[in-house]
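Collaborator request, handled under Task 6.
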Amino acid sequence: MDSTPATQPPRARSFGWIDFWLLTVVVTWAVNFKAAQLAGRLPDGARLDPRTLIWLRMALVVPVLLPLAARLGRRPIGELLRLTRREAWIFAGLSFAAIPLNQFFFIWGMQHTSTVHGALLFATSPALASGLSHLTGIDRSRKRVWWGMVIAFVGVALVVSRSALSHGAARTDAEPGLFGDLLILGSASAWGIYATGTSTALGKRSAMDVTALTMTFGLAWCTVLFGSVAVRDLAAHPLQSLTPSGWGGLLYIAYMGALYGWVVWTRGIAMIGPTRTMLYQYFVPLVSMLLGVAFFGEALEARAVAGAALILTGVAIGRRG
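Structure tokens returned to the collaborator:
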């Protein structure tokens, strides 16, 4: 991945190589849902505390990502970490929104709402990011982009509702409630804030640098907020007690879901802007459904096909808007 800073990047409307890389992230994040269910699993079927997993994810990524960013930028780590006061505040805010706030609100919210409500409410993050980008002047959106978002969101609703019905979610999910729904909206808002705010950090720094610094600050936040929980949890359940699938899931969400996914996503924001990059978020439930059909024998229903067509159409319209 190119480590060259993207100063005032052009908002390309034509499809290019970055769109291919963003699609690989979509697949990575679709698999990430299953990996997250396995991560931290113990032999008795229990799992590590979600706050411990959030901390472990950053603790695994930062020691790899920081040296990698420094090497690609051809300067020592100390120089990479040398920030102005303004940059320090920006990365402190971005990391807080993207990591402890977004991830903890999502995990907590999904315990108090249904899969359908959670998926649909989190699918508002592209619109939230676009609205914030438009209001702040970071990335002005045309009407065509907004129409694309509306069409893709309807497609997501069809795909997600189909998935919930086929899995009997009404019997196994938590009951939808205002508290859980508000937490998921908070998570979606935090992710939208990160996508928009990242543009302010990309003026003099590469996508690799921005991701490395965001996760370094994120590790600091997680240590402050979740460190005591993680220490107690790991004292009771040492890492060597994890099952092979528990280790596999943990390594996947760290190095594929976080390291690879975030670097490419941030590069996408640098090249085509936060609004057009966030459109690809709509593909995640679609790819999750297709993986279920391909590998778990799930049926492909007419509702799902219609939803897939709307997602493809909406993203195509918005991407070229």
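The cover message to the collaborator said: "Residues 6-10, 168-173 have pLDDT under 50 and may be disordered. The chain has one domain: 48-319. Please let us know whether this matches your experimental observations."
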